[in-house]
Specification:
Helices cover 45% and strands 18% of the residues. By secondary structure, the chain is an alpha+beta fold.
Length: 557
């Protein structure tokens, strides 16, 4: 048994590609080995921003011999008067067998010649270079590039190849125009801490060799290190590290040798909404915020960045990041103060300049349709005049923050800033809460809106989108759903179920929404009213079936 190592050295790879590439290899490599009858002990994939690697343990040195049954010509064509014909002789020569190896067996179409042919297994060392090249070139990803004068496409330029079977270098050449990379045993260390190459003497020494040149190739190990270091760093300043799982997965693939560094920002910026500070840190800088305590939403004026540089230079790294976050938070404070200088309602005219969909008009026109749908819902639910007016106010203002400077800089804060600005403008808590809640749920596992007003505006918004996009003939097919219509319909059903809105007549709402849409946009619609309504009904029925079967686990019958 042998150990095989393939390392593909590159320029710095995008974090998302590293994760995707390792997942692809983890699936493809075992199956490609199995196709060649190579049973192995373990296939371990590793990756950093500068390398992708696979370590295969307990690999047999040779394929096993295989016996293959081959069907030949009909017996009457192979033999005449007991003598072999040209057909029989040619078949024997082609398969490399003797006439004495023939076996005559009956089939549905008469008697045929069969032979049992032994295929000798090849040495594994001869198979691996071609396999390795397939593993490299079969990787898929977004925005692949070409470099130099070659046609090879990869996420980033390839710079070296390590191909070892135990202690032997397997010959492999990657050609990209005039650029050629030949396999050897030399890998490269951390750009700062060990910029020199290292010769890997044996494939099984790979992990140890990488640690000696300040490269932690195992993403799982880097994740454990980052989490432990971030927790400890936050404790040192009396706080708790806020570690978002998605951000953690990204940071893992941004560094080869992680070092958590604590930075500080001016406490005056804590006057900003915590969502703004957190978004600035996570989205722009890939920092982990520091909370006052577990479960708290109050921040301390610190952040944790995971550096890929020299740990001895932590103070310099912290100072540089502090300058950057100060500039970011200063921008955030400017946007926040400038936006609050005007009441939220004053932003409504600007929504005329934002297109919802070219045939369905501006976001301002969409807001008017949301208001109409929400009012029909209020009538069905028999709300009081005061509550009905509050629903109308929430529907009117639900998109106003889209044209504020803060949301222009951070689109992910839509709704959140609408709530802040509504409160600052003197709107009621109920209206302000509905503005942020009407976007919920944002995903399959997200929370649902908790207030009736938020539920109503959220349903109205989605009903308008569904009817309008369906009316244009843009019905989801297969995996194509650019307007997330399946998610919108699922959200409507889940909100109605969870809130037990039994008085709400969804069919009647669809009929009213379609009728109003035909009246206002009939000239651009691709479907007549009756067909559009039927398509929407069928779509909701299918979503309900899916939710009942997949989410609730109820049998189809």
């Amino acid at each position: 048994m042998a150990t095989f190592l393939l390392e593909v050295g590159t320029e710095e790879l995008p974090a998302g590609f590293v994760a995707d590439a390792l997942a692809q290899w983890q699936e493809k490599i075992p199956s490609s080995l199995a196709e060649r009858s190579l049973a192995v002990g373990a296939v371990e994939v590793y990756g950093t921003p500068r390398r992708l690697a696979v370590l295969i343990r307990d690999l047999p040195l040779q394929q096993p011999d295989q016996t293959e049954e081959i069907k030949g010509p009909p017996a009457k064509a192979a033999f005449q008067n007991g003598e072999p014909t040209k057909a029989a002789i040619g078949f024997a020569q082609k398969q490399g067998v003797e006439l004495a190896d023939f076996e005559i067996r009956p089939t549905d179409k008469g008697d045929f010649v069969f032979v049992q042919k032994t295929i000798l297994g090849q040495p594994t060392a001869q198979l691996l270079p071609d396999l390795a090249m397939q593993w490299i070139t079969s990787l898929e990803g977004k925005r692949f590039m070409r470099w130099g004068d070659g046609d090879l496409r990869f996420s980033r330029p390839i710079r070296w190849l390590v191909v070892l079977l135990d202690d032997a270098v397997l010959p492999m050449t990657l050609v990209n125009g005039s650029e050629t990379h030949t396999s050897d045993r030399n890998s490269w260390g951390h750009r700062v801490l060990h910029p020199e190459p290292i010769a890997i003497s044996h494939a099984s020494d790979y992990l140890t060799a990488m640690q000696s040149i300040f490269v932690t190739v195992d993403p799982r190990q880097r994740q454990s290190q980052i989490q432990a270091q971030a927790v400890k760093a936050a404790q040192q300043v009396g706080g708790v590290a806020m570690i978002d799982p998605d951000l953690l997965q990204e940071v893992i693939h941004l560094v080869e040798y992680p070092t958590a560094v604590v930075g500080k920002f001016d406490a005056e910026f804590l006057a900003l909404p915590s969502e703004v500070i957190i978004t600035e840190m996570e989205s722009h800088q890939r920092y982990f915020p520091v909370l006052k305590s577990e479960g708290s939403q109050d921040l301390l004026p610190y952040f944790i960045t995971v550096a890929n540089g020299d740990p001895a230079k932590a103070d310099i790294i912290a100072a540089g990041n502090q300058r950057v976050i100060r500039a970011r938070l200063s921008d955030g404070k400017f946007f926040f103060d400038a936006d609050r200088a005007h009441p939220l309602e004053s932003y409504l005219p600007r929504l005329e300049t934002v297109t919802f969909q070219e045939n369905l008009g501006s976001v301002r026109q969409k807001v008017d349709r949301i208001c109409q749908i929400a009012d029909r819902m209020a009538a069905q639910l028999q709300l009081s005049q005061d509550d009905r007016a509050q629903v109308q106010r929430a529907a009117l203002l639900c998109k106003a923050d889209l044209v504020t400077q803060m949301v222009g800089e951070f689109p992910e804060l839509q709704g959140v800033m609408g709530q802040k600005y509504a409160l600052a403008s003197g709107e009621t808590v109920a209206v302000s809460t509905a503005i942020v809640e009407h976007y919920l749920p944002k995903g399959a596992d997200d929370a649902l809106p908790a207030t009736l007003m938020g539920q109503m505006v959220g349903i109205a918004d989605r009903l308008d989108t569904l009817s309008g996009i369906f009316g244009l003939g843009m019905i989801p097919t297969g995996s194509s759903d650019p307007f997330a219509l399946r998610r919108a319909a699922n959200a409507i059903v889940n909100i109605i179920w969870a809130a037990n809105l039994s008085q709400l007549n969804l069919l009647q709402l669809l009929e009213q929404t379609v009728a109003a849409l035909v009246q206002s946009h009939g000239a651009v619609l691709q479907l007549p009213a009756n067909e559009l309504l039927q398509q929407l009904q069928d779509f909701f029925v299918q979503r309900i079936r899916t939710l009942l079967q997949e989410d609730q686990g109820i049998d189809y019958d």
